[in-house]
Amino acid sequence: MTRILLLGSNGQVGYELVRSLGPLAEIIAPARIEFDLSASEQLITDKIQQLKPDLVINAAAYTAVDKAEEEVELAWQVNARAPAVMAASCQSMNIPLIHFSTDYVFDGNSQHPWNEADQTAPLNVYGQSKLAGEEAIRDSQVKHAIFRTSWVYGLRGHNFLNTMRRLARDKAALNIVSDQIGAPTWSRHIAEAVTAFVAIARHQGVSFWDDFNGTYHLSNSGSTSWFGFAEAIFDEMNSLGQTVPAVSPITTDAYPTPAKRPLFSVLDNGLLESRLAIKLPHWRQALSQVMQDLQT
């Protein structure tokens, strides 16, 4: 049976990966205190070698986009240097590495969804550190799959959905940014897609990584603004008989934040679909599923 070292198992995507990968493999999911990506390079290397996995999946990251502007060193350690160490360790052990990245590696100056070959130009420390992590993995020559995803949310953790649900209890009206466009992506759908990827890799054996090594975009299809996402969340809540606030659109300029965000970060998921027939549903369909989960 495949032995998978999963880092970040308490996060949004990691939690769902534990569930979806469980029937497929033996999952080693150390808590952060047991495997801290802010630790020394030698400790990270030693830990991977001691656990002897067949595959490493890194779902851990520093994701506090605004706070990263102040905690630059920590963001770079977790998002850039730790993945570089993982990649070197996996390369030396001849095992593959699966890693998650972000739509924020792009600057947002596009009229069309971003594909994997487009020029990267991150606008903030978070995006810069994630891009550096990607580049370190690619430079290491390790067998790898990097999945860039966007606007990740679910019923666990700190995310836009849970923030809106919390604010709906406290606020009668909200102003939400309407000129940043992206694709809300359910953490469970990410996990299910990556599990399908792992299943195909295991079925095909070592030759799989010769053919499918690389970077892929992975998000729910369609697009919306943060304002549109909020409206959809409150529509779902209203249909369930819950009280919701009134929402009004505002521009990014009217809501300044420490970290600059890309105005357009929709990802083109065509490569993963064409190569491995893996495609995520529309974001609106995913949101309806998530909200139904609240009732079960």
What's the SSE blueprint?
Blueprint: E1 3-7, H1 12-21, E2 26-28, H2 41-51, E3 55-58, H3 72-93, E4 97-102, H4 125-140, E5 144-149, E6 152-153, H5 160-170, E7 173-177, E8 181-182, E9 185-186, H6 187-204, H7 207-212, E10 214-217, E11 224-225, H8 226-239, E12 246-250, H9 270-276, H10 283-293
Parallel strand pairs: 1-2, 1-3, 3-4, 4-5, 5-10, 6-9, 7-12
Antiparallel strand pairs: 8-11
Helix pairs in contact: 1-6, 2-3, 3-4, 5-8, 8-10
Give structural notes.
The chain is of the alpha/beta class. Helices cover 43% and strands 16% of the residues. The protein has 10 helices and 12 strands. It has a 6-stranded parallel beta sheet with strand order 2-1-3-4-5-10, sandwiched between helices. Strands 6-9 form a two-stranded parallel sheet. It is globular and about 55 Å long.
Overall, the morphology is globular
**Order of strands in the sheet with most strands:** 2-1-3-4-5-10
Distance between the termini: 33 Å
Low-confidence stretches: none
Structural class: alpha/beta
Q: Largest sheet, if any?
A: 6 strands, parallel
Total strands: 12
Helical segment count: 10
Order of helices and strands: EHEHEHEHEEHEEEHHEEHEHH
Radius of gyration: 19 Å
Helical residue percent band: 40-55%
Mean pLDDT: 93
Strand portion, in percent? 15-25%
